[in-house]
């Protein structure tokens, strides 16, 4: 049994013994897939940026969330050498400082 069927931009040809050959405009499909992947990644990055405060300077609460630990554990990090800036009673922590501290205490 032989035949040809057109589906959108994909051509399917059946040949003897049930073998199917598919030809398509791969450039268009690849381009569309690439666009979908890039859009999905951008949406995920935007969503995660909104969930995690990616500001350079964070409050203690935001910093604890960024580090993935409780407030109390984060305050323990302070006694272990994590540097926190305090101006007129307002405490802020640098994202770079948190990363440096965690990296320096990695096993």
Which features characterize this protein?
alpha+beta; 107 residues; 4 helices; 6 strands
Q: Count of helices? A: 4
Q: Roughly what is the average pLDDT, rounded to an integer?
A: 80
Structural class: alpha+beta
Order of helices and strands: EEEHEHHEEH
Query: What is the end-to-end distance?
Result: 65 Å
The overall strand count is 6
Shape: elongated
- Percent of sequence in beta strands: 15-25%
Radius of gyration: 27 Å
Q: Strand order within the widest sheet?
A: 1-2-3
Largest sheet: 3 strands, antiparallel
**Assembly state:** single chain
Helix content: 40-55%
Low-confidence stretches: none
Question: If you had to describe this structure to a student in words, what would you say it looks like?
Answer:
By secondary structure, this protein is an alpha+beta fold. It has four helices and six strands, in the order βββαβααββα. The strands form two sheets. It has a three-stranded antiparallel beta sheet with strand order 1-2-3, with no helix packed on it. It has a three-stranded antiparallel beta sheet with strand order 4-6-5. A hairpin with a 2-residue loop joins β1 and β2 (10-14). The model has no long low-confidence stretch (mean pLDDT 80).
């Amino acid at each position: 049994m032989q035949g040809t069927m057109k589906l959108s931009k994909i051509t399917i040809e059946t040949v003897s013994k049930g073998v199917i050959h598919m030809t398509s405009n791969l450039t268009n499909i690849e381009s569309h897939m690439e666009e979908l992947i890039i859009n999905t990644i951008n949406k995920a990055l935007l969503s995660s940026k909104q969930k995690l405060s990616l500001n350079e300077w964070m409050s203690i609460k935001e910093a604890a969330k960024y580090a993935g630990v409780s407030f109390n554990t984060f305050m323990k990090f302070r006694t272990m050498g994590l540097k926190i800036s305090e101006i007129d009673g307002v405490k802020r922590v640098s994202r770079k400082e948190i990363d440096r501290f965690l990296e320096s205490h990695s096993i």
